[in-house]
TrEMBL record:
<feature type="domain" description="CBS">
    <location>
        <begin position="80"/>
        <end position="138"/>
    </location>
</feature>
<dbReference type="InterPro" id="IPR000644">
    <property type="entry name" value="CBS_dom"/>
</dbReference>
<dbReference type="InterPro" id="IPR046342">
    <property type="entry name" value="CBS_dom_sf"/>
</dbReference>
<keyword id="KW-0129">CBS domain</keyword>
<keyword id="KW-0808">Transferase</keyword>
<dbReference type="InterPro" id="IPR051257">
    <property type="entry name" value="Diverse_CBS-Domain"/>
</dbReference>
<protein>
    <submittedName>
        <fullName>Histidine kinase</fullName>
    </submittedName>
</protein>
<keyword id="KW-0418">Kinase</keyword>
<dbReference type="GO" id="GO:0016301">
    <property type="term" value="F:kinase activity"/>
</dbReference>
<dbReference type="Pfam" id="PF00571">
    <property type="entry name" value="CBS"/>
</dbReference>
Length: 138
């Protein structure tokens, strides 16, 4: 019998297919909301740096709305996460999942040679594990 590797052992770069969605450094939270909807993503990078330092997620947008603030007047950079967690493109799905759990985050930035190549979400990882479970039922 041939051993089939578990989904957790594949490189995280295999699930970074979507292009990174970005907003300008001076964008508002309303701009972020538009980018999330149009890009069909859960988080966007703020600014155009090759190695970004700020990320705004759906939850950040929801927090602004829940606080009663006007998303059109709140700057994205003011609500962005700035302590970003990165992994290398060769990191395994399992390693990325553990890293995300250890940092209580839903998005991890994936780099190759110091350049951002994608963002992987908890939803992406769940899809990989779900597909693996479906193809390898107990």
């Amino acid at each position: 019998m041939t051993d089939i590797p578990s989904a957790g052992s594949i490189p995280v770069s295999e699930v970074t297919g979507d292009p990174v969605v970005r907003v300008a450094a001076d964008a508002s939270v309303a701009d972020v909301a538009q980018a999330i909807i149009h890009g069909e993503v859960g988080a966007v990078v703020v600014g155009s740096d090759e190695r970004p330092s700020a990320l705004v997620s759906e939850r950040d947008v929801a927090a602004v709305v829940a606080a009663g603030d006007d998303p059109a007047t709140v700057r994205a950079i003011d609500v962005a996460s700035k302590n970003l967690i990165w992994c290398d493109a060769d990191t395994t799905i399992d390693q990325a999942a553990v890293r995300m759990m250890n940092h209580y985050i839903r998005h991890i930035l994936v780099e190759r040679s110091g350049v951002l190549i994608g963002i992987v979400s908890a939803r992406d990882l769940l899809g990989v594990y779900g597909a693996d479970a479906k193809s390898n039922p107990l």
